[in-house]
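Weekend entry, working from home. Most of the wet-lab plans are on hold until the incubator is repaired, so I used the time to fold the two sequences that have been sitting in the queue since the last round of cloning. Logging both here for the record. First:
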Amino acid sequence: MPGVNSFRSTPSRTARGAVAGLLAAFAALAVAELAAGLVRPASGPVTVVGGAVVDGTPAAVKDFAIRAFGEDDKTVLRLGILLALGGFAVVLGILSLRYRRAGAAGVVLFGLVGAVAALSRPDSGGAADALPSLAGALVGAAVLFVLAGRAAPAGCPPGDGAAGGGWSRRGFLAAAAVSAAAATAAGAAGRSLAGRRGRGAVASRDALVLPAPASPAPPVPAAAQLKVPGISPFTTAGRDFYRVDTALAVPMVDAGTWRLGIRGEGVTRPRDYTLAQLLARPLIERDITLTCVSNEVGGPYVGTARWLGVPLSALLAECGVRPPSRGGPADQLVARSVDGMTLGSPVEDVMDGRDAMLAVGMNGEPLPFDHGFPVRMLVPGLYGYVSACKWITGLELTTFDGYDPYWVTRKWARRAPVKTQARIDTPKPFARPASGTVMIAGVAWAQHRGITRVEVSVDDGPWRDADLAARGPVDAWRQWSYRWQAAPGGHTITVRATDGTGAVQTERRARTVPDGASGRHSVFVTVR
């Protein structure tokens, strides 16, 4: 019969083996997602394996991923894991046509990798976190074993039991359809369970009413926002604020169950705080610019928001903490996140009078989940990787000699004050403005030092002073503009800033690793 001959042909068998492998992988992931919904969403195999990949990736590669993919780096990583899993599944499916047990064992092996990754995560919840990977692997192995038998018609080499009982194409397709339908239902149930777990956190945020600050931020001067098309707004909207972190799944923390513990060297009165207790304290409101250490010269990973929070220095003092300059034994404050991330800040900087805070609000609203709800830490003047812990759940006083946080173990610097930088927002690189008056404009920042001067040079000519917007907070960026009489042809525009200490932005080029990029931002334009 033509149908049987086609089914028995080598290409047909190979295709069915590949389909069997992919369906087994789909079933494994779906059941794992269902199990993770019962255990906790962050224990899913793609999430834990992805986290292990992130942790094991060299700093230079991470830096490249951020430059190349921006905030889509985690999506690219997930896609890469799924593609690798799909390729592995195809190989196992084809192998299982002759060696069913070996193919099924390969699926189990992959599940064991996921289980080990789950148990090794810094935020591991214990042995239960291994269950999703193991459950998914066992189901996937069973699906592959059954489908491989149905995909191998009578008369094929028996191997370790691959020969079926003369299964028809219809039999294979029926078994495949049942497997796909069951896996789809399991995956949908898992997503529903995960969503139900997250709904409690969403409800807690929706119900949160932020109190008025005891120390409100002064109004931003109208002249701090220049009316230049293309310039970055003084205040960055939450939806536009950059996000750089290692969390593949954004933690959904219920504000009602959240706790913050303060422990460690020099903490004479260890404390635990609820969100309600923090909100009952006098809060401060400040306009603060945050900068990621992965921001290249002229890059997008910088933004300003109006933050509401608890002064961190007062909270630490309440626990008996003293800075090293006053005899305190700890010089490093380690912040711990619910996802296991650790960041280390100099205690001296946190307690030197700057507006370091545990933030609860951003631009007049509770923190978005992407930006650390319910509480995150901010220390003006320091790059985010040593100061801006999101989803914070603990503070530990220790020393730089005694403990290396997450990024320090990956060759980033222990101490990382923000470098003075200026950026050209308009005109954009390779723009083609008309000759005549062209407005050059952008932003400059040197948190905790402020910006006192910005200069522009065209084609390596003399430096000309730009006009500065009205002075805002010392911890926020400052806008600038320069009217350029542009002649036709190609031109290179360069900018530099001077901070409040009198230091001029260096021209020395340096990459982001280990303590932030340096150099001067330039754009090339062609004037028509």
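Second, folded right after the first finished:
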Amino acid sequence: MTPDQLADALRAALVHAVDDGTFALDPAAVPAKVHLERPRQREHGDWATNVALQLAKKAGTNPRALAEELARRLADVPGVAAVEIAGPGFLNIRLDAAAAGELARSVVEQGADYGRNASFAGLTVNLEFVSANPTGPIHIGGVRWAAVGDSLARVLQASGADVTREYYFNDHGAQIDRFARSLLARARGEEAPEDGYGGQYIADIAERILADAAAAGEPDPRTLDDAAAVEAFRVRGVDLMFDEIKASLRDFGVEFDVYFHEDALHESGAVERAVARLREAGHMYEADGATWLRTTEFGDDKDRVVIKSDGQAAYIAGDIAYYLDKRERGFDRCFIMLGSDHHGYVGRMMAVCAAFGDTPHVNLELLIGQLVNLVKDGQPVRMSKRAGTVVTIDDLVDAVGVDAARYSLSRSSSDQQIDLDLDLLTRASNENPVYYVQYAHARTASVARNAAEAGVRREDGFDASLLDHESEAVLLGQIAELPRVVAQAAELREPHRVARYLEELAGAYHKWYDQRRVTPFGDEDVTDVHRTRLWLNDATRQVIANGLALLGVSAPERM
């Protein structure tokens, strides 16, 4: 019996009790799905629910009386071994071994689909993440968003959402101008501007621009007048830098569906259209020669200038047009991942969302991430050999590899600052979380290979009642949790829950492995005990693989 089947049985018991008049409860008050959770203490049973406490008042009774009636009805459900009432009305449910063990076969048969749910079915989601300026390689903060953002996209897709991964390409504004002037200065052998960019990558790109111009028979861009030279280095430099960023992300296992250019908002008239729409709605006004948006009407701490007194668009103008563009492209939900320096951005963007008639924190949601600190040999790692001032995505991958980098950046809540120990992440030990989980998968694969050599074949038999050892009950309970964990990770936008779950599952598997054999011992005959345990082994293997796939991490067969 799967958790979903047990939840359905509980709901059916509620519906029947309402239909026969046992409970004076409005049928509409019966939840579409009864929530189950694993008891913290194993001796309390396999599953627990507080549904009696939730519904008792509406049913005109006390929680314990409602729980007693549900327990009586559940006792007749095949596979339910016992139902106990705890405290004021909690139900603790214990399944018989056969009912619990059936999950092993169900998981193997579902394969890669196990763990998926429909909680976001029918929703189109635009997930914007990384969006680093094309003025240098992606630094460690952006790398965290690459790992977390791609994992969140996978979790949302596993929950039924239609997800578009989007990168907002900031190719407009003062930072790009400083980048272009830095390239030109380096190409001319001059010092970088005081507010410019340094690092070896600037020299590399400048040299590439000069080489490309020479190869194409074009004039040396250094010899152009300053304005034309800056523009030449801007156009080519941004393209080269962004090509490098995309290549680094691709090597990191992150592919975007859309690369949206900020310049397009200004060139297409999208900014003017967005401003006009807000003006028609009565949310814009003129003051001090500028055009303002009344964001204070929607909870912001002050109104915002959208068009400055010199006629130039303020930075927020692009944000307004970009949000409207996403909604006009048909996205129900727009999620934007931002760094820790963007907390002040939340209020104004929620006001923009409301000004367009949308629901803040529903149609638009901003996720703020905290800093990442790297440590090696007990000391902070601060400098990149190439970027000069920051640690980049390529630096991290070179140090620990893609799997360790992605897993370690995804396993903590993004609103928490984290320290990554580079020495730990390259260590082949149980202290290294990614190694611990991947080794569990490799061990399941090894068990399967050994079983095949010993003539243990799943298709020759399965008897769920044979999975009666405590370690098997614990392992099955962990396996059963994946669908709930995925749904919760999607609902809370917290893919780190998948990683933490995998570590608990790996621990349960390692303990089971130490206590139960899949292959016969010595001259022992192959029996259904061995075959059934192989089903459980392979179910664990599937669940670990499914979970790692949600994090964009490989599931090795050998380590």
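Plan for Monday: verify the second prediction. The first helix runs from residue 3 to 19.
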